[in-house]
Amino acid sequence: DILVDGKVCDCDVVVTCQVGDPVPLQVKLTNWSQHSVGPFALTMLPYQDYQNGVHNYDLQDAITFVGSNTFYIDTVKPSKDSVYFGSLLFLYTGDFYLNIKFHEDNCSRELPLSWLCLPSVHIRATEPVA
Q1: Quick one: which of 12, 22, 54, 88 has the most CB atoms within 10 Å?
Q2: Domain that holds residue 98
Q3: Distances from the Cα of 124 to the Cα of 48, 72, 93, angstroms
Q4: Domain Trs120/TRAPPC9 fourth Ig-like, which positions (predicted)?
């Protein structure tokens, strides 16, 4: 589950926020398998989609993370979850997307080297209300 500014997100929802206000992010990973999983890293990658097949990941002048954009997960036991919190700060207006990736952090290679867990989250940064 992904929450942006306290709202549950999926691929069909556009979350609106204001430039200059920190936007809280929450990612909850639930292990529905019968075995413990981990270790791996959860990485959040913001980008802009130019709608022509080009994704711009070079956004250091437009978006910053408050804290880290990578969280390390040791083990998630069966039927348990692990929740990670962070914040984004948008410096300019625009439509942005957030990829949530899980990377294997284990040499056993039980998981693919890198795999996406959820569809991209669409966030629209707007001008502050005066």
Answers
A1: 88
A2: 2-126
A3: 11, 28, 7
A4: 16-125
